[in-house]
């Protein structure tokens, strides 16, 4: 991993790319060039009810900082409620997913997600290319996940959108 040789800044509104997953519209705000590959940062807006499929990844960690709205993060045996100012660390090898349960002032939930190492941003960039081409479907997502060490799993009952509250 190359270390950055100087301070890097990405100004508000100057995202480095976009990524869309599970209804989340996201901007890559810090990439490998800025961090020397140590990590990447994605700021995402997720509609109420949106979030990624339940999954596990083997080669990277995620840290979520909740900026707006409320979310429920799911593991195989827990449902964790989180709101503005809360931070969640999800190490590799831990199956997980989340749903936005309440929007913020703009009607969506907003998170800043740090991926470590930053090379995993390539997964989100590849997913965006499939979406732009109109080719993002369960089979292609599964193939892409396999190439990046991500496996999509059957969601726990608590994460089911049809469960009664």
Amount of helix: 10-25%
What is the quaternary state of this protein? single chain
Indicate the CATH topology: Jelly Rolls
Number of spatially distinct domains: 1
Largest sheet: 6 strands, antiparallel
Give the gist of this structure.
By secondary structure, the protein is of the alpha+beta class.
What characteristics describe this protein?
165 residues, Jelly Rolls, three-stranded antiparallel sheet, 11 strands, six-stranded antiparallel sheet, alpha+beta
How would you characterize this protein structure?
By secondary structure, the protein is α+β, with helices and mostly antiparallel strands. The chain has a single domain (17-148), classed as Jelly Rolls (Sandwich), CATH 2.60.120.10. The chain has three helices and eleven strands; from the N terminus they run ββαββββββββααβ. The protein has helices at residues 32-35, 121-132, 138-148; strands at 17-21, 24-30, 40-47, 55-57, 61-68, 70-74, 79-82, 87-90, 97-102, 108-116, 150-152. The strands form three sheets. It has a six-stranded antiparallel sheet with strand order 1-2-3-10-5-8. A three-stranded antiparallel sheet has the order 7-6-9, with no helix packed on it. The longest helix is centred in the last third of the chain and has 12 residues, at 121-132.
